[in-house]
Amino acid sequence: MHQTLAAFADPSRSPDVLALCSRDNPAILTIAHRGLWTATAENSLASVRAAVAAGVEMIEIDTQATADGHLVVIHDETLDRTTTGRGTVSELPFAVVRAARLKTGAGGESAEVTDACVPTLEELLEEARGKITVNIDTKFARDLPQVMETVLRLGVEDQVLVKTDIDPEAGPFEVLDADWFGKIPHMPMFRVRKGMFAEDLRRIETLRAPMIEVKFTDIADLAEGRAELERQNIRLWINTLDVSHCLDFNDTHALADPEAVWGALAEVGVGAIQTDQVEAFKAWLKTVQTEGGRSWRR
Fold it and tell me: What average pLDDT does range 257-280 have in this prediction?
């Protein structure tokens, strides 16, 4: 039985990533890319708080290790764009990375400087604890074991989704042998092959994915995989970020014509959208919700 949207939007509930991802949840999930950074700084603790305040279900964040082994939350290989610092994160000691101050918004030379520093992964997960689910993008595969150890040590695996690239044709999949697999929810990422989406979904069934993130070149391929997604109880995540290169299904186009982007994706069964335009996306969601809850336009 499908539960109502209200059952999943209850703020008194602790975030449960598997319940959110389940197809029993009729809501289209809002994924805030690098947190809700438009009025804060990307990948900052403030961006977590802003996402929680906005009612976002999940944030996506990036992590990598410093030269002396501290996991920090930052997207770029260098400090240059998003902070007052300079240099390659993986080549710098934690003290140097920590001394830099975050810049507002998307950063750059003209961005305002905040009082905040680059957070550690542990600090961000503590900030999110009990409030919002977190999708972790580990920038370098070498850091993945440390990321998983951190999640398990903090005991936040029920609200974390970790993603890795996979090749549907490469089974048996190496990730199945990882000591964390089955303990921390995992989201495979891959490119949809023309006319083979349903077949590739069957190939990855051993991964027991609660959600998958894909790129596509024909939206019709997404629709063709719908029955298999339903059978395996997999939620479909699509990025509408301007850098995602999924045709013209991007945030800029969506601001001008949300139905042509977000509406079209919902029509083919997309149940999670990562966006840099959180406010506009949530405003669009409100316009299409019905009293009993929003179900992906089946």
Answer: 96
Q: Kindly name the residue from 2, 33, 186, 245 that is annotated as catalytic.
A: 33
Q: Is 33 a known active-site residue?
A: yes
**Residue 298 within any structural domain of the chain:** no
Q: Which domain CATH number covers 199?
A: 3.20.20.190
Distance CA 17, CA 117 (A): 28
pLDDT tens-place string over residues 221-238: 999 999 999 999 999 999
- The answer to whether the CB of 84 falls within 8 A of the CB of 101 is yes
Residue 49 near residue 42, CB atoms below 8 Å: no
Q: What is the pLDDT of residue 6?
A: 42
Q: Which of 75, 186, 245, 253 is catalytic?
A: 75
What is this structure's pTM? 0.93
Distance CA 108, CA 241 (A): 19
How many domains does the chain contain in total? 1
